[in-house]
Predict the 3D structure of the following.
Amino acid sequence: MLCFHSKVSSLHDSEKLISNEKKKFSDYDDDLYKFYHLEESQIQGNSNGFKVDSQIRKNVVDWLIQTHYEQKLMPETFYLCVNILDRVLSKINFEVKTMEKLKLIGLSSLLLASKYEQRKAVGVYHVEYMADYIYMPEEICQMEKLILQELGWILTVPTPYVFLVRNVKACVSSDEDKIMENMVFFFSELSLTNHSIVCDYKPSLIAACSVYCARFVVERYPFWSNDLKMCTGYSEENLLSCAHVMMKSCIQICGEGIMEVFKKFSSLYQCRVSCVAQEFLKV
């Protein structure tokens, strides 16, 4: 089975970026990403069929960010988890009315994503612990089966993370440029809490806009370049609509300062980039 982050190196788990420009991308990367761009259009959540309140979804995804971070899971696992969650919410024939029900779907999605991405998958009893034992193992397994049935067992999908790996390599000037790297991931993760971004824009566009918004906040000029256009496949004009929504979400999250995604990226390990964004935006 082809794994969509396949042999591309992980950036957000402390692996070093390759400094030699000529070695940033392998010979087959262009063909690989052409394939990703084709596939992303076919497997995506649909906001038209969404059967959950957007605020409940926002809270649950934010909680999943905290849970994923505390469990020290791979970033690929979280991005796939949200993809699974949104695709299920656009396919199920019943309305999810409570946060408890959506948390169950979210945790079951995290369980599936970990089985796909982690070398050592999260177990059912571990998931039960994450949820403070409010769900029985049987409930979690039953929801896991329902998710797989609804998705037709399709878990091989290109998430924004696949494109972020390539984009960060292109926009980070050195191995020490951790502020830019973390700012890109801050924008990417906060965007996942907004269902209109996730469902209305392609993963590759979300990844490109994360770089664009990060460069704007960190004040890296130019905000967009021909190299980034070549790398992402998007011109600056293509980014503006999604970037506008992403910046609005950032302003709201930084203004409140209480969401888990803000707290996560306010740590010294993440270079306090959410606080940098908060100060830049003066909210």
